[in-house]
Amino acid sequence: MEQSGEGRAESTKERILQTALSLFARDGYEATSVSAIAGELGITKGALYRHYRNKHDILEHIVARMVQIDAERSRRFHVPELPTDVPQESLLSVTMREIQAFSLAQFDFWTGDAFAARFRRLLTLEQYRSGEMAQLYRSCLTSGPVAYMEGIFRAMAERGAIRADDPGTLALEFYAPLWLLICACDEPQSRERGRALLKAHIDRFIRETSAEF
At what angle do helices 55-76 and 5-27 cross, to 10 degrees? Predict the structure, then answer.
């Protein structure tokens, strides 16, 4: 069946996004030109500009895709999307087992999904060259996730679900091994072991912090 004009346009737009991210992750954002993206796809710059205003517009769509995926995963595992912005009552029912399932899904996503892996590589490369990229790196991969967990742990401590004199330190203790394992498990053969280590870490974390123990 012949693809509709709208379908072809969407397919081309997606191909541009995927190809641009691959080039950004391989060569760096600043070093990748619109001409290079178009050339890789075998299209003209004019054809590319029918879908994206410029290179930065492509980057913004990549970031928006990551935010959307993260929000969908949060809803699927019943954890808040943005603990600092959502009503406090939405934090009251979060359990450590839900956090564990969500964290394991995060590990699977960042290590096994090609789009996520390329995005992480892009931010890792460019954080030293661009203030905007450095902010994205912190927001998506380091201080942002720690602040996210701090908000959840603070609410859990206030309702008596966990023991936490300092939710910020507890969030750092929880997230640091997750981030280390993500960075250490880029290769498929290391992911199963990394996932098992992460689960064991969270199991121990639950035993040590749960008010029920």
Answer: 100
Please name which of 103, 83, 115 lies closest in space to residue 182, comparing C-alpha atoms: 103
In angstroms, rounded to a whole number, what is the distance separating the alpha carbons of residues 126 and 21?
A: 13
Least-confidence region, from 95-99, 118-122, 167-171: 95-99
- Report residue 150 CA to chain centroid gap: 17
CA dihedral 55, 56, 57, 63 (to 10 degrees): 120
Rg (CA), the chain: 20
> Can you tell me the distance from the alpha carbon of 84 to that of 87, in angstroms, rounded to the nearest whole number?
8
Amino acid at site 115? F
Contacts 24+ apart (CB under 8 A), 196-200: 198/103, 198/104, 198/107, 199/100, 199/104
pLDDT at 4: 46
Residue 210 β-bridge partners: 162
In one-letter notation, the amino acid at residue 35 is: S
Report the alpha-carbon distance of residue 144 to residue 137 in Å, rounded.
9
Q: Who contacts 94 (Cβ-Cβ below 8 Å, separation ≥6)?
A: 78, 79, 80, 152, 155, 156
